[in-house]
From TrEMBL:
GO terms for molecular function: ferredoxin hydrogenase activity; hydrogenase (acceptor) activity; nickel cation binding. Keywords: Iron, Magnesium, Metal-binding, Nickel, Oxidoreductase. This is Uptake hydrogenase large subunit. Ni(2+) binds at residues 76, 79. It comes from Salmonella typhimurium. Its main location: other. It catalyses: H2 + A = AH2.
Amino acid sequence: MAYPYQTQGFTLDNSGRRIVVDPVTRIEGHMRCEVNIDSNNVITNAVSTGTMWRGLEVILKGRDPRDAWAFVERICGVCTGTHALTSIRAVENALGIAIPDNANCIRNMMQATLHVHDHLVHFYHL
């Protein structure tokens, strides 16, 4: 008898087809994806798990939220700017800060440049 696999509150059973991708490559860290697919090739349940914990939640606890960008950009050695911009936008949204349109355009150009850089590194270097 096959037992369902349970992780993080989700249960993946053996009904239908089960697809497991382990490890997921081309990412920073370790990741596993599991998916249940029914007879119509529709995903009925999916779980992804990662094992890397860097402790940034603990480091940032009690700090000024405006300082978060300097820490979270070190999550990944390849996409530092992306994590910094995302952190800044999250803090601005949480504090209700509106930025000028020109600043948003500059950020979008930075993000597009980082997107191209990230793809070049992942497809041709790693």
